[in-house]
User: Fold this.
Amino acid sequence: MDITSATASPPPAPGAGPSPARQQGRAATRAGDRVFLALSRGSGILLLVIMAAIAVFLTVRAANALSQDHGNFFTAFEWNANANPPVFGIAVLAFGTIVSSLIAMAIAVPVAIGIALFITHYAPRKLATPLSYVIDLLAAVPSIVYGLWGALFLVPHLGGLYSWFNDYLGWTGILAYHDGAARSLFTIGILLAIMILPIVTSVSREVFRQAPRMHEEAALALGATRWEVIRLSVLPFGRSGVISASMLGLGRALGETMAVATVLSPSFTISTSLLDPGGGTFAQNIASSFKESGELGKDALIASGLVLFVLTLLVNGAARMIIARRKEYSA
Amino acid sequence: MSGVTMDRTPVAGSGAPQPSYSLRQPRLPRWTPAALAAAAVAAGTGIGLGAGLSSHMQWGLIAALLYVAAMYVLATRVEGRRQAKDRLATSLVWVCFVLAVVPLVSLVWETISRGVKVLDVDFLTHSMGGVLTIRPGGGVYHAIIGTLEQVGIATAIAAPLGLLTAIYLVEYGRGRLAKAVTFFVDVMTGIPSIVAGLFILSFWIIMLDNGYSGFAGSMALAILMVPVVVRSTEEMLKLVPNELREASLALGVPKWRTILKVVLPTAIGGIATGVMLAVARIAGETAPIVLLVFGSQVINNNPFDGAQSSLPYYIYEQWAAGNEASYDRAWAAALVLIAFVMILNLVARGIARWKAPQSSR
Assistant:
């Protein structure tokens, strides 16, 4: 690391990285080095190439699809790439994706903060370590298993709860529920919340753990209760970490495919009620309608995938930027 | 501390000259939360039964609400406002904990209890070839073969690539290229699996005109795996003390041999853990398989030619078939998949713990 640049006898050449002059000077011993550097730098570059290729290929296919679309890609409430003329639009998918992810966030983030606090500040130590293991294992359960559980266990059990909501809150319109299986956007939201819980929890847990011990002890010494300690010293310290953790969770929720594809009963309509079945998400639509799609249909799905790709890039990029800025402050 | 109150006013009749102040606040006895929780659960069950609510979730929600409210009211009356807030926060945090544990327990319980129904040696050693989906019978052998081959190829691509990238970032990386790689590795971590599948679809199947195959799926899985491997390996390499590198370089060992013989062996436990966790993550991916491997009912041992199946895809397929026999098979396959992933996880964590003292200090 530093030692290599210190041993270089000639004055360092301008520009970053090991200077080529130095390597030529000791070609005999450094041949292996050059191969190794080329290999490792090459794989780094390969990663960048893959990322660029993903963007380029998706864009090319998407452009092909858009040029043949006879509806408005952003506002059409239809997905008929096989029809003549082909009409497809992402309005319903965008609505479903964003709404279900937001429901998931609204449920998962408070619960995740609660669990993170439980592990770091409340739980007896004997319970805290196994619990963080369990939460990590929750992250390892494959999404298709969540989907199976959601479709065959969660959905039948939610019907009663939904009619209860309908009785007391049905007048809002948003929480109205008519009979039928509870394969709706709200159910998706609950399922996604369970699925993103582990990642939000584990990131927030790490942040809460780093809260300065001195602040906490000072607050305790002043007679603060445990909640006041948390409110005064832990939460302000952890705020940006929690925000970025939730954005990472949001990124996961946006792109989740199989759990949504198994649970949701899709339709190309936007209904005001979140509890009634219907709607769709980008990823779910790709997985469910792939096998019936022809050449153009696949391109149309790729176009919707590109939108999803850009959406997750934005969300994840924002999360990473918040984390990076926080590092500068705390370093 | 306005909450500190005089415990009892001096008893009038005792004639003691000095009133006895207590600095202790009145506190609820230690067993209050547990007792209250039990009472709330009982009340929730009672209300649920009485009102004829069909969903057990409602019972649970009512019990949780009752518990939080009762705890708050009780603490306000006995202990004062500040303590009551503290109690409120504590009970909310406990409720969150229960909320998180309930789905996990239910998921594991459902999978095990429904999965063992058809899980036996026959199930593990037979394919679905010639089996009608509405009839019981058949098995997951072809899916296990598919998963092992696809995940194996993906690991063979992703592990060296990720390892080398991490070495570049830690040992050589400086300047704009390293920054870009770091940033895009982070971004890649967030790529939805279906997008990785679409990329391979447009590149390998539509443009290069190859057929559906296990290998196409492996490439998509590799894209998902690389960033995970890079991240974990990077963390491990950073833990290797610089003194080791300096000692080796000072003895005149070339840098590449230093990395291969000193740095990597020191960090190998952590690296292995990271790779295994990444394998566990991609083993359950379904979306790219749906797009690229296409699924099959029969055994196909060749991942480079023709459609294959895989465990997660098999679950999806059996779920989609939508009858009792296929649901049973789906649960059994889910049990196999979870067992596979959990064993990988536990072994990985075991390696991490076993190797930890040497690599971190």
Remarks:
- Residues 27-68 of chain A form the longest helix (42 residues).
- The CA atoms of residues 244 and 323 of chain A lie 6 Å apart.
- The two ends of chain A are 21 Å apart (CA to CA).
